[in-house]
Amino acid sequence: MELDLFVRYGPALIRGFGVTILCWAAGSLGGLVLGFVIACLYRWSIAPVRWVIYAYVEVIRGTPFMIQLFILYYGGPYVGLVLSPVQAGILSFIVYGSPYFSEIFRSGFNAVPKGQVEAARCVGMAEATILRRIVLPQMLVPITPPLTNFFIILTKETAILSVVTVPELLYETQTMAAETFTYVEPFLVLSLFYWLMVIGTNWLGGRVEARVTRHLKRA
Amino acid sequence: MADTTPKSNGAGEPIITVRNMGKSFDDFVALRDVTLDVNRSEVLCLIGPSGSGKSTLLRCLNFLEAYDAGEVRLDGELIGWQEGVSPRKARSSGTLRKQRQHIGMVFQQFNLWPHMTALENVAEALIQVKGMGKAAACEKAQAALAKVHLSDKAQSYPANLSGGQQQRVAIARAIAMEPRVMLFDEPTSALDPELVGEVLAVMKEMAAEGMTMVVVTHEMGFAAHVADRVAFLDAGRLVTCAPPADIFAREPDDARVRSFLQTYRERNVV
């Protein structure tokens, strides 16, 4: 192991890790919000809107992330959408994640028994209140594990952003490898960084799950 | 056989009037031409074979099902549909919510909100719908829980309550809103036999206090001893509505009532 290499490239790797976390956090949280909006629209809007949403979900889920990223970054300027690599990375991440998130939310909506909503209607609760106070807290129970899982999957998808020169972790690692002709060590360190993200996310998901299921504990 | 407990004042005149009401699900006619009055402070039990339309009738009373013919009125006000508009147009969601606040409902499956404690279940609508402050709502919720003898379970989540306790919390949730009438959709059908009694006891107390109650039930003992009148439905029609003494007489006039009650007689229920 040539430790001095890491002294030299350490700051760049840390910076890359920062960019990875930024793209991942902003992109997946944006995707989460957009996915929720899509799931709500699908549930409560008229048929033509549902067809559009259906097509969107199918197209995004049916194509590779890398292609979507290329189209957004290199095709964007043709329609006046000029983005920096990081902007393109985050935006494409939001677009890519949203249909998966919306499908998770859709299954969550379906998991809340109809009687729960009827009971709320019977005491005169408004639909928005029912969503906020009755449906959402309950759907968190079944959807927290798949949400955590998808956040974990997305940590590693950030590596693809390197193809449009986003200076994230893989990009910096490749730079280091190319300049120093070392390949094993940099990629071991790279794995370590991703692993840290994954266990962090997993831990956080576990905390959320414990919080949203506390009412199910036997006293 | 009818309960002889004195009822509060104002008893006798109709509070719910159902006129020629009908409801279809696609090609299936669930209810046809139902005309029925529910009097103030009365306990009316709906009985009949499964699929006869009892639950649908009950759910039309608070517009959980939109009836498609005739009228349902509460204190003279048309429920669910706008007055005098043809073709029918549903009332605004705000108006519908106001109407529903006057009609409490208890379900077969309790439908408590599992992520809230018993107290929170009862206080929720007081806060979110009636706009009460948290302290006042909790105080009122405690009083409602006391009425169903569950003061000590206020902090329990539904998962830690027995079926009978859950159903009593559901009753407390409904009565805390001070409804004018209470609807019960087979309130004891999902309960273990030894838990049925505690729920029926609470319902008897409510009846004695003069609450107007419409109860879909298979508990013929309750219908025979607590109801003021019993309505028998078959194939979506109201066959008869009469005091329990007439319905549960040895030889009811109607053959369908006779054959329905036969199965209960064989089990010595009535």
From TrEMBL, chain A:
Annotated transmembrane regions: 12-39, 78-97, 187-205
Domain ABC transmembrane type-1 residue range list: 17-205
InterPro entries: AA_ABC_transptr_permease_3TM, ArtM/GltK/GlnP/TcyL/YhdX-like, MetI-like, MetI-like_sf
A family per Pfam: BPD_transp_1
Gene Ontology cellular-component annotations: ATP-binding cassette (ABC) transporter complex
UniProt subcellular location: Cell inner membrane; Cell membrane
A GO MF term: L-cystine transmembrane transporter activity
Primary location: membrane
Family per record: Belongs to the binding-protein-dependent transport system permease family. HisMQ subfamily.
Protein name: Amino acid ABC transporter permease
Organism annotation: Roseibium aggregatum
From TrEMBL, chain B:
SUPFAM superfamilies documented for this protein: P-loop containing nucleoside triphosphate hydrolases (SSF52540)
Organism: Roseibium aggregatum
PROSITE patterns registered for this protein in UniProt: ABC_TRANSPORTER_1, ABC_TRANSPORTER_2
UniProt keyword terms in alphabetical order: ATP-binding, Nucleotide-binding, Transport
Domain of life: Bacteria
Annotated InterPro entries: AAA+_ATPase (IPR003593), ABC_ATPase_HisP-typ (IPR030679), ABC_transporter-like_ATP-bd (IPR003439), ABC_transporter-like_CS (IPR017871), MetN_ABC_transporter-like (IPR050086), P-loop_NTPase (IPR027417)
Name the UniProt record assigns to this protein: Amino acid ABC transporter ATP-binding protein
Any one Gene Ontology molecular-function term assigned to this protein's record: ATP hydrolysis activity
Domain ABC transporter: 16-260
